[in-house]
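Are you able to produce any protein sequence you like plus the matching backbone structure tokens because I've never seen that pairing?
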Amino acid sequence: MLSREEISESKLDEKFMREVVSQAEKRLADLLEAKKSTDGKSTALFAAYVAAASASFSIGALVARGGPIGDKGLWFFIAGLAFASGAAAFALALRPGKFGYMGSEPQMWMTPKWVDGEPGRVELMLGYLASFYQDRIDLTDRANQARYRIFIAGLYFGMAGAASFAVSLLLTLF
């Protein structure tokens, strides 16, 4: 990727640069859509895991009510803890992060240097926009990767919770 200094010193083709910016916009839009998708899944799974944790804790309390918890109630509580941990992971995945944005503020371009009508300004602007988009793409990609790791951890907690719940059901029924 050219530095901003190299961009200012290059002879840029407007048609080519418009295509570069178009592709950059599409890539950033894809990354922002992936963020929205992860947010939606995290929100839905957060609610489901809270419900599963509540159910696991409640059943564990009912099983343990007759006396010492023993193995039967303990596994329900372990399941509840795993689901609660997964819900916490999904809540972390929903925290605000640093993501790129699609547009630029007009103040960035509405200066004498840019609006004076010198030839080559459009090409140069497109070159700078492509560079800014790359920065935004990198920022958004890093933020998405961090969210994905936390999201996957939440899924693993859910699998552990489901396994613990299954063990507790088997111990209770048999």
